[in-house]
Amino acid sequence: MLKPSRRDKKRYVVVKILGEEIIDKEELISAVWKESYNYGGYVFTALSNLNVIKDINTPENVFIIAINPKYVEDLRFILLNLRNINNKKVIAYVKGVGGTLNSVKTKYLEGDEN
Amino acid sequence: MDYRCGEHRMRKHIDMLINPVDEEEAEKIISTYINTFNVNKIGICVNNIRKIPKKYYDKVIISYVVKANTKKELEKGVKDAKNHLSKFKIPSFVILTSTSYDVLRYGVEKRKVDALLDLPLSFEMFKIDEVLIGLCSQNNISLMFNFNTFRRSDRNKKVKYLRNLRKILQIAYKKNVISMPVSGAQTFYEICNPRELSSFMFIAYRNLQYALASTSFHAEEFWDFITKLNDKTRPVAGMYIGDIDA
Fold first, then answer.
1. Which residues in chain B are closer than 8 Å to A69, comparing Cβ atoms?
2. pTM of the shown model
3. Helix (H, G, I), strand (E, B) or coil at B61
4. Under 8 Å between Cβ of A104 and A96
5. How far is CA A108 from CA A17, A105, B93, B211, in A?
6. Nearest CA to B52 among B91, B83, B105, B1?
7. Does residue A113 have a pLDDT over 60?
8. What's the sign of the alpha-carbon dihedral B197, B201, B202, B204?
9. C-alpha dist (Å) from residue A38 to A43, A56, A59, A71, B161
10. What is the ipTM of this complex?
11. How close B145 comes to chain A (CA, Å)?
C-alpha cells in the first residue's frame, strides 16, 4: 500500500450529456476511450488514468470521470469532439471539477437530484 | 496582455458565431445557450435566416459570412451583406473567408470586413504572413477559428489547421490581435459549451490563461467594439456638439 503522497493524483470531473436517449456508463467508457485514442494515442490514455466511476448513484446522463490533474483541459477537448455514442447523437459538457468525490457531489450533484 | 489570474474564471464565456440552417434550429440553439449553458451574449450568422425573435434582441449580435476568392466576389458579397443586415435592427458585423491571400489582404487593408474566419486554412503549411496579422491589429480586425470546420475535416486538414493555428496565435499574441474560437454550429447537435471551446485554443497554444481569455475577455472586447460601431447616436469625428456662438 503506497503512502498518500506517492499515490496518483486525481481530479473528479462531472460530465453531463444532452441528448434524447439515455446512455449507460459502459457505453460512455468505450466512447471516451476511443476518442482519447484518436486524440493522444495509447500513451496519453495510459498516462492520464482516465476512468469513469461506477459505484456512485448519479442522475440520468450525468457521470463522474477521474483523471490526472495535468490532463483536465485535454479531457475537455475530448468531450468537445464526442458527438456520437453508439449511433446516438449527444452533446457532452463539463459541469464542474473537484479534488474529492464528496466536494463534487455536494457542489454539482445534489442540486440536480432535488 | 495581462490577464489577472483568477478574474477570467469568474467571467462568463461567450460564443461569437453560430450559423443555424433554419429559424427553428436558431430558436433551439439560442434557448439551450441561455438556459443550460448560462450564456447571455451570442453571435448569430444570418446567411440563412430572415427573422430573430424580439425577446432575444438584447442578447444577440448578428453577422454575415462572405466567401470570396476574387475581389469582385468580395465587393459583391459585402454589398449583399449590408443589404441583408440592414433589415434587422441589431448591431452587426461582416466576416470574410477566403483561400486567396490577395483577397484577404485587400479586405483587411481597405477595412471592408470586421473579422476573418478560418485563417489557418487560407495558408499553406508553415507559410504564414505576419504582415497580414499586423494589419489586422492596426485596423481592429479580429480572427475567428471555427471548431466545427476543424471537427468535420480529414486528418490531414486537421493537422494543417492545428499547426497553422499555433503559429497564428503566437503572432497574434505579440501584435495584440483579438482571436477567438467559435462553434459555427449549424444544428442543435453541433453546439459547444463556450468554456469547452477555450480548450480548442489551449490544445494549439498551451497557455491556459490566454485560452480562457479568448472566450471571455477578448469576446467581450469584440462585443463592446461592435456595439459602439453600430451606435448611431455616437458623434462622428469632426462634428461639433452643442451651440457655437458666432
1. none
2. 0.89
3. strand
4. yes
5. 14, 6, 38, 24
6. B91
7. no
8. positive
9. 11, 28, 29, 15, 16
10. 0.88
11. 15
